[in-house]
Amino acid sequence: MCGRYASSRAPEDLAGLFEARWDPRETLAPSWNVAPTDEVWAVLERPDRETGEVERRLRTLRWGLVPSWAKDPNGGARMINARVETVHEKPAYRRAFTRRRCLLPADGFYEWQPVAATATAKAYKQPYFIAPQDAAVMAMAGLYEFWRDPAVTDEDDPAAWLVTTTIITTEATDAAGRIHPRMPLAVAARDHDAWLDPAHEDVHGLRALLHTPAGGHLDVRAVSTAVNSVRNNGPELLEPPAES
C-alpha cells in the first residue's frame, strides 16, 4: 500500500511543472508526512462551469476516497489506495477510473519493515523513504470523486461537496519490493495528457499508461522513526535513523 508520502514543492512550482491553472487563494503547507484524510495537491482536468471548456487545474483534495453513493464520508480513511488489478471493476472506483482521474505530485513515499526484538531492544517498524534517484517529482496515479453532503441544502455552497482522492497501487518490484509488497503507480510526463483527459474512457488504454515510478530507478533509504507519528513533520524526517 501507500499510506504516507512527502509533498514539499510549492504550488506555483507544481502548477508550472504540470502546466495547470492554480488559484493562489488555495494553499497547503509543505508536508514531509502526508497522511490519510489530509488535504493534498492534485492535478486534474474538468470542464469549466461557465465556458464548458476543459481546463487543467492544480487543486486540493482530501486523501481517502468517498464514493458518490456513500451514506456518509466516514469510510474514506479506509480507501486511500485502489489496487490496479481490480480498479476498473470495483464499484467504488470503476466510474472514477473511466471519468475522474488525477495526478498526485510527491517527492517520494514511505514504507515500513518490521525489525524483530533483540535481547536489548523491543521490536519496532523501520521506515524507509522511496523516491526517484534523480529527485524528480513523482506523478502518482490517482482517482477523485465528489460526495454530496445532504446536510447542506444549497448545492452551490462549496461546503455541499466533498472532493476526495485515492492512489492506484500495484505489486512492488525492484528496490521497493524489498521493503513492502505494494507500491504506488505513476504516470510518465509524456502520458499526462492522455491520463487526465476526461474523454479517454478506454480501460485497456488507460491501464497501459500506468508504470513504476521513475521507471523503477528508485532510491530506498532508512529514515528517522519520527515519521511513524503523524504529529511529526519537517525535512528532518528524511534524515538517517539515530544510532541505537
Automatic annotation (TrEMBL):
<protein>
    <recommendedName>
        <fullName>Abasic site processing protein</fullName>
        <ecNumber>3.4.-.-</ecNumber>
    </recommendedName>
</protein>
<dbReference type="InterPro" id="IPR036590">
    <property type="entry name" value="SRAP-like"/>
</dbReference>
<comment type="similarity">
    <text>Belongs to the SOS response-associated peptidase family.</text>
</comment>
<keyword id="KW-0190">Covalent protein-DNA linkage</keyword>
<dbReference type="Pfam" id="PF02586">
    <property type="entry name" value="SRAP"/>
</dbReference>
<keyword id="KW-0238">DNA-binding</keyword>
<keyword id="KW-0227">DNA damage</keyword>
<keyword id="KW-0645">Protease</keyword>
<dbReference type="InterPro" id="IPR003738">
    <property type="entry name" value="SRAP"/>
</dbReference>
<keyword id="KW-0456">Lyase</keyword>
<keyword id="KW-0378">Hydrolase</keyword>
